[in-house]
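Give me structure tokens for this 266-residue protein.
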Amino acid sequence: MKMDLLKAIQSLENDKLSSILRKFNEIIQERDSEITLLRNKVADLEARVIDQEIYSSKDCLIIENLPIEDRNAPLSHQVCHFFHKFLNHETRPNNFKACHYLGKWQSNTFPPAVIVKFLFFDEKNELLGRKSWLSRKTNQCNGYPIYIKERLPRHQKEIFDFAKAENMITTTVNCKVKVFEQSDDGSYRGVEVNSKKAVLDMRNKAIKKKPRNYASASTPCSTKPISGNHNTLKRSRTSPGDLSTKETKNQRHEDENVAGNNLLAG
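Here you go.
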């Protein structure tokens, strides 16, 4: 486009007009260079913000449907008791930088999610590695599953939700999103993705490789067997119409965690 404009200017017979247009072309090129430079600076700043969010989030865990035995007791003590009872891990409130609810109680049966920021990254990582231990355990107050997951920065959360919407098998590792692709021998390999475009590229690659597996929307790849017992990927659930708002939210997160639990546990 720029070369065509330059050739058109040079072909003009009017020298004065040609000179004016040539100056305009130089100004346009200068502005284009400035815009490119500013875009690069914005991209660099966005990358720095994302890195900072990952750094501040990597020590955090979110517990959904945490069993609360006494609402008057300190929440940090309830969390310590939960880790001991369900994950066989001994800790104390002094090991938490922060521990609080994400939202308000909407009912006496279903508590809001709880975020815990750990003093030690290794402790958080150890507990996250045990999240598969909760696959067959429930909150006795309401009979629904309990989940623990990482707190994702906004950028990673958008990628994670997008990958799930595309029916990709997805998990997170240290606040980074991984999408699993199937190799020729049937095994799965986790690939870190940093953009929605990368997710779509993997999706299109999988469709091209095995089009029959994606011929029907009723058989998404997230329900295909990964390894071990396939039944753990399809846990029985009550109809969403029978659930409260909080229950529906918990059930919506089940598919996000079960596949990742089995992959990490394997």
